[in-house]
Amino acid sequence: MGTIPAWQSPGSPRQARSARRSRTGTESASYSQNEALPDLEDTIVRLLAFEAAGADVLYAPGLSNLEDIRVLCGAVARPVNVLARPELTFGALVEAGAQRISVGGALAWSTVNALVEAATAIRDEGNFSLLGSSPPGEWLRST
What we know:
45% of the residues lie in helices and 9% in strands. The chain has helices at 13-22, 40-52, 66-75, 90-95, 106-125, 137-142, and strands at residues 29-31, 57-59, 80-83, 100-102.
C-alpha cells in the first residue's frame, strides 16, 4: 500500500480551497492532523499551506506545551485553535497566542469518569454519596 499524496489527503490545502469556494457564510477551519506524531515544524508547514489556500482558522490539536503554541502562533497570520489540556489554563493559552480553544471530548470524558466513580462506590461500598444533585436551577436557567 503506497502513501497518499499530500494534496489528496483528508484536510489537504486543495480540500480547504474547495470548502472555501463552496461555503455560504461559514468559516473554513483547517486541521493539521498532528496528534499522533506531534512535529512542530511539520505542523507549521501544513498550517501555512492551509493558510495560503484560504483557511480562516488553523487548528493544531496535537500541541501540548505553551512554547510550541507560541512558536506556531507567531509563524502564521490566521487565528489558531488549540485543544484544551488539563495542565494548561485558558489565560496561558491565550497569552501563548491561541485565539480559539476547543475542549474536544474532554467534557464527555469528565462525565463518564464521574459516572464510573459513582457506580464503583455504589457497587463496592454501597455508598450513594457521589450521586450528588441536579445543577442549581439558576445555572440551568442562565445557560
